[in-house]
Amino acid sequence: MPHRTITLSQFILEQERRHPEASGEFTRVLTDLALAAKMINREVVRAGLVDILGETGTINIQGEKVQKLDRFARDVIYRVLSATGQLAVLASEEDEDIVPVPEGQPVGKYVVNFDPLDGSSNINANVNIGTIFSILPRISRDGNGDLADCLQPGTRQVCAGYVMYGSSTMLVYTTGNGVHGFTFEPSVGEFLLSHAEIHIPERGRIYSVNEGNYFKWGEGIKRYVDWLKAEDAAAGHPYSARYVGSLVADFHRNLLYGGVFLYPGDRKNPKGKLRILYEAAPLAFVAEQAGGAASNGRQRVMELIPNSLHERTPLFLGSKRDVEDCELFVQEKHPAIRVDRRAASPARTR
């Protein structure tokens, strides 16, 4: 029997039919996100041929140089989503404050937090980049949406996912009922179901971290990475180091093959550099729905309640058992630490 080809729109509608209470409003938000992704993808694949590579000359709220493609992606997502009539407010990594829907547009009951183009420092090197999104229900009652609508914990998300632009463009998302991946087929202009019910292995063999920051880390993370690299066939060590420097690319690989992504705090950035709303919470939702885990070392990322739009967090993300081990090292509770300390202690004399 030939394999059935299912487009993203068909898949979303099928899911909607399984929930008679669905109004179709959420479906519109998700399909419009896919439309925005197609528009961004069109510019990404021809970026070297048009005046869209390079920096704009401005600095965003994160203190980072804004890339031209970064700004383009932000504007496309805002224009497409703000015209749906389903949103109350948006928040973006590129904007200092919340972004209301345009004057005169109907105000809806959903909120979208998004990172328009993760990994933008890699744009000029033609490395995989991505869009990360999080959809939340509105909690304010009157007028346009407000700050409180955006500052909700990850447990309140109704949908989260990412689009990865590269040799092929993929959209991966969850609504709390598993994780599904769709690959863009440019000849028909559609995202087609290519990875149904993605499950991350319980334990992987890959670790992803910028080891250039090693000497700024706390002792727990140093010991964890050293432990992963040590020869120990019984424990499945050493792990392989794979680090792209683009969060979406590193997470996507580990989601499929298993492994752990690490972005710890350090002396310079004790809270890490990844944003709760635009990166950590949405990818934590995807990871958990695929059978994985996400932690800041001491707490489940999905339970973090941000106090500001651009609050950061350490992030340990990926296979469940790997994240659990990492937490134990951060908290200095892992058995390997006790063994290491005994080995390092001076011998007693009688």
Automatic annotation (TrEMBL):
Domain Fructose-1-6-bisphosphatase class I N-terminal: 6-195
CC per GO annotation: cytosol
Pathway assigned in UniProt: Carbohydrate biosynthesis; Calvin cycle
Classification via InterPro entries: FBPase_C_dom, FBPase_class-1, FBPase_N, FBPtase, Fructose_bisphosphatase_AS
List of residues binding Mg(2+) 1: E93, D115, L117
Gene (UniProt): fbp
Keyword Magnesium: yes
GO molecular function annotations of the record: fructose 1,6-bisphosphate 1-phosphatase activity; magnesium ion binding
Cofactor(s) the protein needs: Mg(2+)
Keyword field: Carbohydrate metabolism, Cytoplasm, Hydrolase, Magnesium, Metal-binding
Protein name: Fructose-1,6-bisphosphatase class 1
Family: Belongs to the FBPase class 1 family.
